[in-house]
Batch of 2 targets.
Target 1
Amino acid sequence: MSAPAGDPDANPVRVLVADDDADIRDLVEFKLTQAGYAVEAVPDGVSAWEAFSANPPQLAVLDVMMPGLSGIDVLRKIRESDFAGVPVLLLSAKSRDSDVDTGFAVGADDYVIKPFSPRELLHRVNGMLARAR
Amino acid sequence: MIVGAALLLGATIVVLGACLLLILGVIAVRARRHSRSKRDEMLLSPLRPPLITVASGEDDDGSAAEELTWATGVSRTVLDRNIADLLTKIRGAPAEQLVRVLEVHGAVDAAVGDLSSRSSVKRARGAQLLGLARAAHTVPLLVDALRDESVEVRNSAAYALGLIGDASAAGPILAAIGVPDRGLPAATAAEALQSMGVGISEVLREGLKDENARTRMVAAHLSGERSFTRGLPELRHLLAHDPDVTVRETCAVAIGRLGRGEDADVLARHTGATEPLPLRRACVTAIGELGEPGAVPTLAGLLGDPDPRLAELAAGALITMGAEGRDALAGHEDDAAVRSARLVADLQKSAA
C-alpha cells in the first residue's frame, strides 16, 4: 500500500500521532510510515501538545480520550496557536452523534470512529493533506 | 473502667489489623497483576512486529499472519487475548486476517466449548470472542445463551449477535427482553439490534405488539432511530392506547422522528393537561421535530402551561418552526419559558 506522501527526494510529510493505546499508536505509526510519512507517535495529550509546539507537523491524528489533556483539549490549543491551520483528524471510540458534533465544533477536519479500518484512515490522511496543499 | 479501656484497645488493634491486612491484600493483587502484565509483555514482544504488521493491513503476502499462527503455549494464549482486544479497535481486512489466526489457534472452537462451561465468566468471554470473530455459524448457540442464568452471559451473547449482524437473531433478542427473571436488559438489546441491517424492520413491527412493555419500548425506540416507517400505524396505536406510559412516551419520540405532517394532530391530542406529564413533554418535543406549521396554535396554547419545562419545550419548538412559529411568540418575549428556549437555541447554534 503506497500513499502520495510527496516526492521521495523531498522531506517526507510529518504526521503527529497521539494515542494512549499502544496497539493503536503502533499500528497507525506503522501504517503511515509504510506509506512514506515521517511519524512522531506520543502516548498522551500533554506530550502531543509539547511535540506539536516544538515542531508543528503537517497533520495530526489525535485520540479523543487520553490522560492529562484529551484530544479535544489538544485540538483546542492547536486551533488557538500560530499553527491553527494544521489539519487534525480525531480518532475515537466515542461514537455518539454528540461526540462527533463536539469534535467538529472544536475544529477537527475529520473524525474516525473505532473500530476503524487502517486502510480507510490512510485514505483520509492522504485526502486531508491533498486538500491542505 | 480498666475493663472498658482494655476492650477499646482490643477493638482498635483488631480494626487496625484488619486495615493492614486489607492494604497488604490490595498490594499483593496489584503486584500480581503488574508481574502478569510484565510477563505477558515479554511473551508478546517477539510477536508484536508481525501482529502490528497484520493489524495495520500491511501484510500483503500473509507472511506476518503465518508467523503469528506458529505461536504455541502461553505465548499463544497471550497473543490470542491481544488479538481479541485488537478486534474491538480495528475492522476490515486486517481484522479478518487476525480472526483467521484465532481460528488456526483453535481459539474460536475453544470459545464454542466455553459457552457450555460451568463458569459464567468463561461463558461470557466465549460469547464475546465469537462475536469479535464474527463467527456466523455460532448464531444458534449465541441465541441459546440469551437465556443464560447469568446476566453477564446474556449481555455478551447479545453483544456478539449484534457484531455478527445476522438479522435472524433479531427476533430472539427482542423476545429475550421479556423472559421472566432472566430478561435481557433493554439497553443491551437495543444496542445489539441497532447494529443490524434493514432486515429487522418486520421483527420490530412484531415487537410493537409484544405483551411485554419493555419489548414494545425497545421496538418503538428502534423503529424511530432506524426510520422504519412501516411501523407508523402501530406506533400511533400504542401512543393512544398502550397501558405503559414509557411505551407511549417512546412512541411519541419515534413518531417525531419518522412521522408525517398529519402526525402533528395525533401528537397534539396527548398534550392536554389530563395526560401524564412525561408524555405531554415528549409529544411537544415530537411536534417540534415534525415542524408541521399546522401545529403552531397547539404549541402557542402551551406557552402559559403551569409546567415551566413544558412551556419551554413548546417555545423551543416554535422557534424552530420558521416565521409562523416566531409570530406565535409575539407578546410572550418576556416569558421565562421563551427566554430560556431562546438561550438554548442560541447555545445550540453557536455549538454547531
Target 2
Amino acid sequence: MKKGLSRRNLFKYVGAGSATAVVAGCENKPEKLIPMLVPPTDYEYTPQTAYQYMTTCRECDAACGMMVTTREHRAQKAEGNPNHPLNQGALCAKGQASLQTLYNPSRHAYPLADGKKIPWQEGLQQFSALTQTAAGAIAYLGKPAVGSEGDFLDEWLQAAGGGKRVDFELLSQNSQVEANQIAFNRADVPEYAFEKAGLILNFSADFLETWGNPVENARRFADMHAYQKGNKNKFVHISPHVSLTGAKADRWVVINPGTEGLVALAIAAVIQQENGSHTFLKAYLESYSPENVAEETGVSAEAIRGLAKEALEHGPLLAIGGGNVSATKQSVETLVAVNILNAVSGALDKTLRFYNQTAVKKSTHQDLLELISDLDAGKIKLLIIDDSNPVYALPPSMGFAEAIKKTFVVSLASQKSETTHEANLVLPALTAYESWGDAFPRSGVKSIQQPVMSAVNTFDAKAREDILINTVQSIDKTAFSGNSNYLDFLQDKWSKIQRELGDTRSFENFWISILENGGIYEKPKFARTALSRKVTAVKVSSPELVGQEGLTLLPTTSLLLGDGSGANKPWLQEVPNPMSQIVWDSWVEINPDTAQKLGINDRAIIEVKTPHGSVQATAYYHFGIHRDAIAIPMGQGHQHSGEVADGFGINVMQLLPGEFDNAGNLSFVGVQAELKLINEKSYTVNTDGNARQLGREIAAATTVEELAHPENHGSAHKRPTEFYPDRSETAGYYKPYRWGMTIDLDRCNGCSACVVACYAENNIPVVGKIRTAIGREMSWIRMERYIEGYGDDFETRFSPMLCQQCGNAGCETVCPVYATYHNPEGLNAMIYNRCVGTRYCSNNCAYKVRRFNWFNYEFPAPLDQQLNSTITTREVGVMEKCTFCVQRIKTAKYDAKDLSRDLEDGEVLTACQQTCPTKAITFGNLMDPESKVAKSALRETADKRDRQYEVLAELNYKPAITYLKKVNTREVLGHNSENHDSHQNSENHG
Amino acid sequence: MLGKKVINLKQYFLVGLFVSAFFLALNTTTAYAEEQPIAFSHKLHTVQNGIACQYCHLYARRSFSSGVPPVSTCIGCHGPKEQKLVQPDSKEVNKMRTFWSDKEPIPWVKIHDVPDFVRFPHKEHINADSNRLLDDAGAGCDTKNAPRSLECKLAQFRTGGDQRCLACHGDVRQMEVITQVDENFGKMGWCMECHLQVKGAKERKRTGSTIAGWYHAKEMDKKREAAIGLVNEKGYHNPNMLDCYTCHY
C-alpha cells in the first residue's frame, strides 16, 4: 500500500479546504437601500422602468433621429427615432456606439491648463481673459454646423470682438457641392432616390458606410436592390476598390484609380448618342468615347458600351460618385462627370432630386491651410477647437500640429484626443446626450437634440455653448440678448421656426410636441434642375496613377471607425470589420496577384512608404482591389485618445501629401507607395475561421433565373426524416408562442449595426485583442463573411449568425445540469445560475454561437452605468448566448397582460432587428400564421418555399431561424468549387 | 495496517472539523435583521397610524421594484426641524431630519434581498389574479400555531391588499425592526412552494421520459394540456410560472 497522500485523499483535503475558503469569501454583507432625497418632479419616474427620449445622433453630420432608453435616469440603449424620416428607427454601428461617447472612460473629467487639473472657476476666468485680449484675432475650428450652432457661433464671435470660424470635417461632401454648383448651379447635396432607380452605377462612393446618411442610403438601396416578386434591380460598382458597399454589387468593374470620371463620361457619350438628349454635349462627349478612354481607364470599350446599354434598358439610372477612393486632385471634375451621366440618362428630377433651398456654405480643407498660415504668421491669438481632431486627422505635412504651438489653444472637447493633448487649456464639454442642440440635416427635417439624462457624474463638464455664453457675457453683459444659456438661444430660434410654420399653439405646447416627436418633419420641396451648359468647360483627364513606380495608395473609410472618432469606443474596436473580419488593428489591402509578385504573403508585416511618411501594417489579401493599388483603412493609429484607441494600428493620413482638389477638399488619392516585407508573420487578429464555405452553404445564394423554376427552391441541405413527433405536438410547448426569426441575406449588407446593438442591449463584455486572438470574443451575433470565387469575379456574402434557438438543439441534451433547455416558447433558454461551466453545450453547438465567460470581465467606470439593468450581467464560469432578447419579450408580455391580451405581431423587436437599416431581420411568433415571420419563413412544405433555407439543416437541429438566400443576377459562384487557381493562400484567412 | 487506520481517523477528524465549520458559518438565525441607520418602526406607522404599505412603497404595483420611499415622503408628515410637525422632538425622527437638511439619502440596510440573477417583479405579484391559485390553496391555515405555514401565506395572498405583501415579507405591521421572518426568503424552493400552487402547475411539470410513455404519449399530452388551462377566461394565455425564464434571464 502506498503511503502518504494519495490522489483521492488530496482531493478530499482540497475539497474541504476550498469549502471553508468559500465560506470565508462569501461573508454575507448586506446591501444598502439608498432612497432618493426628493423624487424627481420635472419628469416621470418609476424605478426599473424604461423611459424613452427623442434626440438627435451627433456621431456624424447625417444627424439621424435617435430614441434613447433610460432607466433610473441613465441612458442604457440608443435606438433610431421611428418617427424620423431619414433613418426611420434604424441606427448604424456608430450610432449604436454613441452610448460609449457618453460613458467613455477617456472623457475629460476636469478642466486642464497645460495638462494640470484646475478648478472650473479658474479655467473660465482664464478663457474670458484670453477672449478679451484676443478680440479680433480669434479662430473657432469645429465640426460643420448642421443646426442652430452655426448662427450661435457667428453671434458669439461677433460679440467676442470678431474672429473667424473654420469648419473641419475629414470626410466632407464639399467636392460634391462644388460639382453640383458647376453642373446644376446648385450648391447643395441632392436627394438620392435609390428606390426609384432601375440600375445603380456607383463610382467608388461608399454610400453604405460613411457617404451621406448611410442608414437612409442602406434602406433606400435595399428597397431598390432586394429581390421582390421575381425581380431584382442591378447595382454595378465601378471602382478600383471593393468596399463593403462594393461587396453588395452585382458586378464589379475594375478601373484604374482616379478614372471614375472618364468612365462616367464614356457611358454618358454612348447614352447621349442613343437617346439624343442634351445635344450641346455631343461634341464634348465624343472626345470621351469608350474607345478613347479604354486604355486610360483599363475598361474595354465593349464593357463600357455594355454598361450604357444596361442603363438604357433598365433605367431610370442613378449614378453616384464621391467618397475617398475617387478623391484625387480632380475629384470635382470626376463628380461633374457623374452629374453629366445622371443628366444625360434622364436621372435628374427622378432619381436625383435637388431641394428647393440653398445649402449653408461650409468652409473647406483649404481654408484650413489659410488658418495654418495665419497661425504661422501669429495672426491668431486664440484658437478654439471643439470635439474635432485635426491634429490626428490632417496629414502631418500640412503643418497643423506645429502651427497651433504658436497660439493659445482652448479645447472645448468632451473626448481626449491628439488635439486636446496639444491644447493649452481644456474646458471639458458635455456630449450630445447631456446637452441641448438641434440639426437641420435635410430640407424639411428639423431635429432636436435634448439632454436625455443629467451629466455623467464622473465627469465635471459643462455644455460647450454655455461655456461660450458665460465667457462672452463676462466681457459684454448684453451679449446674446441676455440669454443665460444655450437652451434660451435655441428656444428663440425654434419660436421663429414655429412662427414660420404658422403654428398657433403656445410656444410651451409647441416645444413639448417637438421634444415628444424629436423634431419637425415636413415633406421636402424639390426644385427642377437642368444641366448647365458650362459643363463642357470641365476637362476630365486621367491622373495617370497606373504605370508609375509603386502602388497607388487608397485611404478607405470604415463604417465602424469612420474618420477615427470611433477608435476610442470599445465596441467599435471589438466588432470585426465586416470585410476583413480584423479587430483592433489596421491592415493593407493588396491584390494577391500583386502581393505574390512582390513576395508578400498574406498577413505579413509590410512597410508602406510614400514620400511623406512610412508605416508598418499587416498585408491583407483582398481580391477587391486594383492590381496597381493598395488600400489602408482610416481611423486607427491614435496616440492620445485614451486606452482603447492608443497604439492600435496605424494612421494612414501620415502617408498623404496634403494636396487639394478644386473645391479645396483634401485629395486622398494620388500618392504612390513602395512596399517592403518586414516580417512574414504578424499579430493581426481576425474572427473568421475560414473565408470559404467549403460546401457548407452557410450563406447560400441563388439567382433570379433559378427562382423562376420552383424545382430549384429550397436548399441542397435538408432536414432528415424524423421518427419523433415535433415539439409543437407536445403538451405545453409553443402555445401560443414559438419565437422565430427570418434573416434576408439579400437585404443584409453586412453593416454590423446589429452586432453593436447586441453588445449594447445584452451587457456583452469587450475582451480585447489578445483574448479575441484565442477565440474568447463574446459577441452573441456575429457578421460572418464568406468569399466565393477567385480573382476579379469574386463574390462576398454576409450572414448574421446568432443562436438559432433550435427545436432539437445539440446543446440542451449535453448539459449535465439542465442549465440550458427548451423553453415552452421555443427559446433555447440559458439559465446562468444553473450553469457550472462544463462547456459541453458549446462543443456540441454546430453554429458556434455560445460564449463562455473565462473571466469576470470589467466594464471600466463609467461604462458600467450603461449596463442594461433588466438582465443579468454574467460572471466568470458561465456560458452565455443570444436569448432572442428575452427581456424585451418579457417586458412586452407584462405590458400585454396589463391590457388582458396576448402579444401582437411586431410588438417585440429584438435589438438586432430594431436597428437593422434594411429591415433584413424579421422576428415574431411562428405559431401565428398571420405573423410576418411565419409568412416569410414558410416552413412546412417544400413547395411553399422559394428562398428559405436553414443553416446546416442536415443536422436536424430544427433551428428557429430561417435564412432567405441572397439573390445574384449572375451565376452563383459557390456552385462550382473547381474554379481554384493560384490563390491558395487566400483560403487561409486566419 | 494499524498505522493506516490512524491516518484515516485523523483525516476524518479534519474533514469533520471543516464540515462543521462550514455548517456553522452557513447557519443563519431564522429572523434576520440588521441595525438600521434610524430605528424606524413599521409597527408604529402601519398599525397605530394606519398607513397602508403602498403609501410609502408606491411603486410596488407599477414596477419591478416596490421603491424605498424618498426622504421627502418622511418630511411630508414630519416636516423639517423648524416646522415642528409630527414628533418634533423624537431623537430618531431628528436623525431623519438631519439627513434631510444635509441633503443625504438614508443608507437603509437591505433585509429582503433576492440574488442578482433573479428578476422579481413586484407588480406582477401585487396585480396577480388569485383565482389562478388552486381552489383549496390556503385552506387550513392555522394562524395561531403556524402563521408562516404555506397555507397561511397562500391565504394572505388570496386576501389581497396589504395582506399580499405580508405573504412574503411576514407580518411587517408587527415589526419594530424590519426583520426577515422566513429563513429561506428569496431561495428558489421558497418561491416554488407558491408557484406550484397555481392551477395546472403540476401538470405543466414534465414527468417521465418520452420513451417510457411513448405509446400513450400523445394521449397523455392531450390530457395534460387540458389540465394546464393555457387560456384563461379573459381569452389570453396565462403566464407560465414554472419556466426558468420566468425569473432567470
